[in-house]
């Protein structure tokens, strides 16, 4: 028998989803962005802001796994020969530490390097999808859309970092492809709290123009309902 739809209190109004048609997408919870001693911190960012969401992400992930939902993890990752990294992307940003350079946890944003791995607290499990993406968005130059379409996924729940860069870009890409998206407010973070707040406001403005937002608690409650 088909499981009933689930509903939770969200902003700007209730979010309704069916678990078999919904995927949890965790964006770029990689050691280089989140951990002390990584790329993010070496650029002068306060990584405690990103670390603080790990327990919330763990709680949602655990409830999602228990409910049997599809899980997708992404990593911002380039090929070692940088063939998938446009020079414009590499040349912008901090000149002393560019994509492909040797950083504190291996080559910056290169697939397979220690800093490119997902933090151990949120490590992917067998059967979960891990998408390496060369862009900020999870759909650009990746098999994500085909994978989701193949599984009948119509709704996406987002968590991860950073809110205004890779999370927001991915959510906008998903919205344009027809997915109904929810962003977990306390499951996402930015090095710049004002950018996070602005993103939450932009996403849910004008009747959920990009999607919905909600704290983790009602989402978890809906999973256990
Ligand atoms: C992500 C970035 N993951 N800020 N990357 O947001 O460059």
Question: Secondary-structure map with pairings?
Answer:
Layout: E1 6-8, E2 15-17, E3 22-27, H1 31-34, H2 39-42, H3 48-51, H4 54-67, E4 70-76, H5 87-91, E5 102-103, E6 106-107, E7 129-133, H6 144-150, E8 155-161, H7 163-176, E9 180-189, H8 193-208, E10 212-214, H9 216-224
Parallel strand pairs: 3-4, 3-8, 4-7, 8-9, 9-10
Antiparallel strand pairs: 1-2, 5-6
Helix pairs in contact: 4-9
The chain binds dicarbonimidic diamide.
Tell me about this structure.
The protein is α/β, with parallel strands linked by helices and about 220 residues long. It has one domain: Isochorismatase-like (Rossmann fold, 3-Layer(aba) Sandwich), CATH 3.40.50. Helix content is about 35%, strand content about 20%. The chain has 9 helices and 10 strands. The strands form 3 sheets. A 6-stranded parallel beta sheet has the order 7-4-3-8-9-10, with helices on both faces. Strand 9, helix 8 and strand 10 form a beta-alpha-beta unit. The longest helix has 16 residues. It starts with 5 loop residues before the first strand and ends with a helix. Dicarbonimidic diamide binds next to helix 7.
